[in-house]
Model the fold of this input.
Amino acid sequence: MKAESANQRVSDSEKSMLKLSEDIGKMADRIGLMADRIGTMADRILETQKIQNQNIEHTQKSMLEVINTMNEQLKANNKIMELLINKSSGLIK
Done:
């Protein structure tokens, strides 16, 4: 009877170890899937950053064009004002 009891305990221990091993395998598979998802999200984030960098570059170029246009307009306005001032003070006839 003691031999059967010892065999039963060994069998139970083996079953427990096999179950634990199976559970560890399942957890490893889940961790692998999570790592794949993290990699996919990282790729998406990188693509988003590339697009945002392009958008920032286009915005900066557009703003520079606006500033240059405004600068040219201010120069033209200053010339007009100078002509008006000179004409009103009698310097231009």
Remarks:
- The mean pLDDT is 91.
- The radius of gyration is 40 Å.
- Residues 30 and 69 are 58 Å apart (CA to CA).
